[in-house]
Design a protein that fits this description.
- Helix content is about 35%, strand content about 25%.
- By secondary structure, it is α+β, with helices and mostly antiparallel strands.
- Strand 2 and strand 3 (about 90-100) form a beta hairpin.
- The relative contact order is 0.14.
Length: about 200
Amino acid sequence: MAGVDAERIERAVLEILLAIGEDPARPGLERTPQRVAEAYADFFGGLDVDPLTHLADTVPLGSTEAGVPATSDAVILRDLAFRSVCEHHLLPFVGTAHVAYLPGDRVVGLGRIPAVVDTLARRPQLQERLAEEIADALVTGLEPKGVLVVLDAQHRCVTTRGSRQERSSTVTIASRGALAEPAGRAEIIALIGAQTNA
């Protein structure tokens, strides 16, 4: 479990169990500190990873047969599942990311975009900041003409505590370049929302 101090997490969880009045030695709880440490290693595994490493192997768009630089109007990845942990209560939030970019002269393999989302989500996060960080990573790594990131997530700190708004979700948007312009953004959002005819 690189990146986390498992023994320290186990001691902290043991203390939490004692603090809530539980018996950490009872059946069912004796391995809980270890299980939590293992879960945290997974939840926060993005802390030691630079998301730009996923964007290092780009592919030039090249030229057409007429020698004109090739272009791609937009690359859109819809319905990318992600999960993160809210830094305010250390409770998960789970949702869907939609990521679009207008390529400059380079594109990246389609599997690299979900890897960027996953790396940045595997940190203590705020949903608003997560959208911004994904957009910034794509701008830095790909130098596109525009970027749009839409996150739609349910927060367990909202659905399971306090007012318990079990059906609520939160949508955040981060845009850069040409996709920060209302017309360009609206077109991409319409494409994200379009249903395919199966």
